[in-house]
Every structure is written in structure tokens, then in C-alpha cells.
Amino acid sequence: MWDFDVVVIGGGLLGCFAARNLCRRKLHIALLEAREDVCTGISRANTAIVYPGYDHKPGTLKAEMTVRANAGFDALCRELDVPFSRCGSLMVSYGEKADTVLKKKYENGLSMGVPGLRLLSGEEARKMEPVLAEGVTSALYAPTAGTVNPWKLGIAACENAAANGAELCLNTRVLGIRKTAEGYRIETDRETFSCRAVVNCAGLAADRVQELLFPTPVHIAPDAADYLILDRAAANKPTHIVQYEPEDGGKGLSVVPTLEGSLLLGPSERENEVDFAVSEEGLSFVCERAALVLPGLNLQDTIRSFASVRPNPQNVDGSSIGSFVIEHPGPAFWSLIGVKTPGLTCADELGRYVADRLAAELGAEENPAFDPHRTGIRRVRDLPLSQRAALVRENPDYGEILCHCEDVSKAEVLEAIRRGAVSVDGVKRRVGAGMGRCQGSRCERAVMELLAEALGVPVTAVRKDGPGSEILEGSHGKD
Ligand SMILES: Cc1cc2nc3c(=O)[nH]c(=O)nc-3n(C[C@H](O)[C@H](O)[C@H](O)COP(=O)(O)OP(=O)(O)OC[C@H]3O[C@@H](n4cnc5c(N)ncnc54)[C@H](O)[C@@H]3O)c2cc1C
Prior knowledge:
Blueprint lengths: L1 E8 L3 H10 L6 E4 L16 E2 L10 H11 L1 H8 L3 E2 L3 E5 L2 H17 L5 E4 H7 L9 E5 L3 E3 L1 H14 L3 E3 L4 E6 L4 E5 L3 E9 L5 H6 L6 E13 L10 E5 L7 E5 L5 E4 L13 H14 L8 E14 L9 E6 L2 E5 L9 H16 L22 H10 L6 E3 L4 E2 H9 L5 H8 L12 H12 L13 H7 L4
Parallel strand pairs: 1-2, 1-12, 2-9, 5-14, 12-19
Antiparallel strand pairs: 3-8, 4-8, 5-7, 6-7, 10-11, 11-12, 13-16, 13-17, 14-15, 15-16, 18-19, 20-21
Helix pairs in contact: 1-6, 1-9, 2-9, 11-12, 11-13
Bound molecules: flavin-adenine dinucleotide.
């Protein structure tokens, strides 16, 4: 039996940040993740927006956390050595009804203290973002909105937690939880863990994990969302995040210029569907909306599509819950259930919230040895030519470029593997190999060979993909 102070269940953004913030205290922490790598669930497939905070009901925890989280995002990303772009956002409308919605959001944002918000005329909006379709009637400009690579942020938080002593237990699925005199006993498909406290961050399965021991008044009613990614070479891309507020009050669209230079468009909304596979219907919706707002985009520039699943929280009577659900069903047991947008923006805030309360319950002292800094993988393409040459002289693997679309060298792939990538997808999420225009058709074989060598398995045994149907089996208790 493995003994810990705190067991965190689920290695998505929320679990990784809960573990990292718990490391600020003198606590022995285990992070249990059912899959072979962290951040392969919702944290891998979302819109990647760091929200400014004008969208939520003033006075709610969600609203307060979003504004605070946004303000601290540069510092957080500096600590964790993760790129972050404060590109700003324009929420655009094409008619009187949507203008009124934007005005309300503007007033809401002002009352929340969201910095720099401006309500623009259509003309001003098109001056700022000339690729917008003609006829725009108003726009809500939020200069503090930004974008971050979500899985890179989660992986960085996990690496930092591990460097501060947290034990990462991958391929460890929680199957049962029992109360003991000292705390809890956690049964998994590998080891049994005993601990004084539990933080349940099991994403789509968080309601079910809580129900292993406690009843939950909140249930997750999932629905699916589809996205498209356009190549960085696509013409007429916006430089700001563009969010379309439709006149009919229906589902809008977000268009995000990513840190990789590509363009993310989505999401659609497929009610009651639990599927990480894209649907034709969902993608058509995204294309139609995109053509309305950004008519200059050529959707033939699409290099990839993907889907996600929203963990919509519902009361037992089926009514939906608008705010974050933070459950405390038993002593030193905390659950984050149904945290959807803006959970990426607030991951660190939510982690702190739970860690502070748990530390108070356990009487845990501050950990003076906690080091919040982590160094990312050195990217050869970001270096000036003179430094590249020096690096290649030091280690020739930096001179061997495997992914030509994203300029990823063999040395970077090897470093991704050293840091925990066990699949082609794991390498891609750490260093971007295979994320470019050819989507890995040129580098995949080389990456697989390096993985095979490092893992001591034949190339045919190397896994290509991270998530997929297994996430759903795991998170919806089919085992
Ligand atoms: C479509 C969509 C778009 C979004 N866009 C944005 C955005 O633009 N900005 C923003 O701020 N937020 C956004 N969000 C919200 C954000 O993505 C999520 O809040 C965040 O990723 C939540 O991560 P998580 O850790 O709860 O879940 P996950 O990343 O799914 O992690 C849960 C983990 O728990 C593991 N697990 C499950 N069961 C068990 C078990 N029994 N034992 C062990 N491990 C288990 C899973 O394998 C998984 O790895 C979006 C969400 C969705 C769905």
C-alpha cells in the first residue's frame, strides 16, 4: 500500500494545477491518472482562450476567478516557461439584438473591473480587424484576452509539481474509494493508496468518482463540440480572437489565432453526444459560421479537425448549473465537477482554492522549499542562427530536423520522450512534431522509431494517438 497525505485523481489541467498548488505546503502528494500521459482529455481539446472575464455573473466565484486568473496569466506562464499571447479579442455583432447583448457584456465587464474594455462601432471594428465581414454593427474589444496552448500549460504544471516532490502515477485508474479512520483508501487497477485527503479532478468522470464513496447532487450531461484548424499559411487570418455573437441568439463561433500560427475555429454543439470523433454536421456548422464572419478565409486551408466533449454540470432534476461546482462531500475530500469554460483560464485559481482549503483542514504548513519555476524544452527554431550553430556543435541532434513543418529537431523529440512522452501524440503535444501542414506524414515514422528505441518495444507497438474512445470508456465507467 502506498501512503500519501493527498491523492489527486485525474491528470488534466485541474489535477495538475491542484497537485502543483498542494506542493506549496509540506504535503506528500500523489497524482493518479488513468491514461499513459497527462492532459489527454478535455484539457487537450478546447478553444484555448484565456478569457478576460466579462461573460460571467458578477459576484460569482467563476467571474471573480476569471478576472483574477487573467490578470495573473503572464506571471504564471513566465514561471512555467509556457508561451502566452495576449492578442486581445473582438466579440462581433451583425444586428440590433446582438448589439444589445454586447452592450450588456460590456457593462458587466466594467462592473467586474475587466481592464481596457471598449465597445466599438462596426467601422472601428473593421479598422482594427479588416478581415471581418462587412456589415458588422458593433464589437466588444477586450485587450486582455489571450491564448495559450492548453496541454503545454498542464504538462508544465505537472512537471513543476513532480519537481517539487509530487508522485505522478500514470496508467492508474481509480476504481474504488473507502473511508478509513485516518482518511481514505483508494483502490486502483494497480496499487492501493492510503491518504489523509482526496482531490477529485476526474473531468468527465468526476461525478462518478465522487459517487464511489459519496452521493453527488451534480451530474455531468456531456455534449460534443467540433473544431477545424487552418494552416498558418492561410490567407486573411484575423490577428485577434474573433467571437461571433449571432443575431438569432444561437450558438456563436470563436476564431483563435494560435501560438503555432494556425487558426482554430469552433466549437459546434452536439447535444447529448459523447464522442471525441468529429461529425459532418458539426464541421458544417463551423464552416457556415466562419463564412459569415470571416468570408476571406479559404476553408480548403484546413489541416486538421478534432472534437471535444463538454462536461456540462446538471442538478439531479436536469436543470443546468452555470457556475463552477466545487463539492466538499466529506472531510478532506474535494471534487471539481463539470468545470467547463473557463476552466483553462481558471485552472491555477481552482487549484489554489482547493489546495488552500485542504491545507487548512489538514493543518499543513507552508513548504519553504517550493520552487514555482520550470524550464520548458528548448526549441531550436526560436533561437537566432548563431546560437543554433553553437547548439548543433554541442549536440548534433539539434541539427537533425525531423519535423520540417514545425522545425523540430531530433534532440527536442528525445527531450520530449525523456520528459514522459510515450506516444506520437505525447511527442507532438510537447514539441509540436506533426502539428504542421503535413500533419506528421513526414516525421511520424522517425518519431515512432525514437519512441520504440526509448521504450524498448517494436515500432509496431508504438501508440500513435493519445485520446479517443478510451477516454470515454475510462471516464464513463465502462470498466
Ligand atoms: C469544448 C470545450 C472548449 C473549452 N474552451 C475553453 C477555453 O477556451 N478557455 C477556457 O478557459 N476553458 C475552456 N474549456 C474548459 C477547459 O478545457 C476545462 O475546464 C479543463 O480542460 C478541464 O480539465 P479537467 O482537468 O477537468 O479534465 P480533463 O482534462 O478531461 O482531465 C481529467 C482526467 O481525469 C482522468 N480520469 C478520469 N477518470 C479517472 C479515474 N477513475 N482514475 C484516474 N484518472 C481518471 C482522465 O483520464 C483525464 O485525464 C473548454 C472546455 C470544452 C469542453
